[in-house]
Amino acid sequence: MDFTLPILAPSILASDYTRLGEEIDKCNQADIQWLHCDIMDGHFVPNISYGPKLVKAAGSCTDAFLDVHLMIENPDQYIERFADAGADQITVHQEACPHLHRTIQNIHNQGITAGVAINPGTSLQTIEPVINNVDLVLLMSVNPGFGGQSFIENTYQRLQKMSAMRDENGAGFLIEVDGGINLDNIRKVTQYGADVLVAGSAVFKAKNIPKRIENLTQKAKLGKGTIA
Ligand SMILES: O=C(CO)[C@@H](O)[C@H](O)COP(=O)(O)O
Question: What is the pLDDT of residue 227?
Fold first, then answer.
């Protein structure tokens, strides 16, 4: 599937679940390419969000690529269920996968793309052995578990290092950044190498959601490729 970079991926975690269809429809009005679903289990992260049933409902409201981020322990146990629910991509946490290479294979075996996520406090070197096997690396720019947190500033250096690792290894994965992205920092995040920008509060707390998505996307485009 071809996408135009940078990609803005609204995270429905910040949406009004009582009007989920309408909220996603507003994203469709802005021609979103990706929709981001955050799965939290109350163990890997200190919060519980939603499961495959809601992912399926969300997917039925859009043609956008369904980007499912599993912040859960034992992700292997749930890969098939989220794939059946319509996930186009599943991302698992390095910190939750003792057999990361096998988990990535399990995702690919479902005929979908695979991502690996890392927390702000985890060394980038820990994912080096799998970077030629994944389609996406997700750098968390907040400690996962809650929407509405502030962006952690050292993400910029981590983005630069991750881009350099990709070049050195001749890898082709996309770099996604998730947490605390807003109108003030989105340009800089893309300047430092992000291809995909997850935004929850910045999208769904806006009065005019389609307009906000357009503004965020425009600012992200201004940053793309401006730092070597
Ligand atoms: O995974 C997470 C939080 O753990 C994120 O996807 C949040 O949903 C992003 O929300 P904002 O920081 O943009 O409000």
Answer: 65
Active site residues: 38, 178
> Ligand 1: residues whose CB is within 6 Å?
11, 13-14, 36, 38, 69, 142, 144-149, 178-181, 198-202
Residue 103 near residue 70 (C-beta atoms within 8 A)? no
Q: Of 223, 221, 180, which Cα lies nearest the Cα of 199?
A: 180
* Ligand 1 mean position, distance from CA 51 (Å): 16
How far is Cα 140 from Cα 149, in angstroms, rounded to an integer?
11
Find the 194 Cα to ligand 1 centroid distance in Å.
16
Residue the block writes with tokens 């429809």 = 25
Q: Residues 47-67: pLDDT tens digits?
A: 999 999 999 999 999 999 999
The alpha carbon of 40 and the centre of ligand 1 are apart by a number of angstroms equal to 11
CA distance linking residue 141 with residue 155, whole number of Å? 6
pLDDT digits (tens, 9 = 90+) for 17-49: 999 999 999 999 999 999 999 999 999 999 999
Low-confidence ranges of the chain (pLDDT < 70): 227-228
Pocket test for ligand 1, best of 151, 198, 205 (most atoms within 8 A of CB): 198
| pLDDT for the residue 219 | 98
Q: Which atom of ligand 1 is nearest to the CA of 13?
A: 8
Domains identified in the chain and CATH numbers = 7-223 (3.20.20.70)
